[in-house]
Amino acid sequence: MELAITHVDAVKAVVDFLQAFEPKRILIAEGSASDTWEAYRRFGYRQLEKEYGNLELLDLNDDSYETISLETLDGLGRNVRISRTAKECDFRISLARAKTHDHVVCTLALKNMLGCIPKGEQVWAHGAGVEPSEPLETVLKSNWLLSKNLVKIAGVVKPHMGVLDGFIGMEGNGPVGGSPVELGIAVASCDFVAADAVMATIMGFEPMEISYIYLANEQGLGIGDLSKLKIVGEDPYKVRRKFRPHSNYQRTQIRWKEFAEAEGKQV
């Protein structure tokens, strides 16, 4: 589904911006859960290699790796691979379409870094080898572990910039089966947590009510509190448009604070 991917025009806009800095090499990298090269071809990314002599496409599923330990439902932890190229590159930009999500409310720049883990292992960010669907308590804990693991992954491959394409976002049953929203907004920041917080606000959510933004803010990866940000451009509250959340939002996505409080966090 084209709406589920980052539009190639958004990528091209970022690449055009970067050319002013005369970069020797620009990598467009993704670790798709399906066929990365087919996605590159289908959605126009291969054309970018022809337009820019300093640009390369990379399938992170074929990269060399280091390992990172993720938290699991059984408490034992799990080592998974994480892209060495992503970790070692000089400047990381996380570029994502603004979408609702079936586990963590919305998927933005921080959530996007899950693509640095190869397919087949990404599922362990949920705390198990298979995403749990029942019982409810297990699903709730899995969603909490997902946010904790996402923040840990983002800490290892921390984006130096977050860019969020909200020209046409996705609401409802994202990140794949949702409906388009013609929002006409883009957000960019060298504080990727701040970028996520601003876009979440524009989408009608309270950013500190989103577990991974709360955790990233708490752990000092960036600022998730809009009152502490200097925002250049439109006032997020004046362009705010309430996105319809995923259908499981009330049942499984808003009770993460119970787990945070059980761990002694102030929420």
Tell me about this structure:
The chain has 267 residues and is of the alpha/beta class. It has one domain (64-262). It is built from ten helices and eight strands. The chain has helices at 8-19, 36-42, 46-51, 84-88, 109-112, 136-156, 192-202, 211-218, 249-253, 256-262; strands at residues 26-30, 55-59, 65-70, 78-83, 93-100, 106-107, 161-171, 179-189. The strands form three sheets. A four-stranded mixed sheet has the order 6-5-7-8. Strand 7 (161-171) and strand 8 (179-189) form a beta hairpin. Helix 6 (136-156) packs across helix 8 (211-218). The N and C termini lie far apart (37 Å). The mean pLDDT is 97.
**Sheet/helix structural class:** alpha/beta
How many individual β-strands? 8
Alpha plus pi helix count: 10
Roughly what fraction of the amino acids lie in strands? 15-25%
Distance N to C terminus? 37 Å
Largest sheet: 4 strands, mixed
Average pLDDT score? 97
Overall form: globular
Question: Which characteristics define this entry?
Answer:
267 residues, alpha/beta, 4-stranded mixed β-sheet, two-stranded parallel sheet, 8 strands, globular
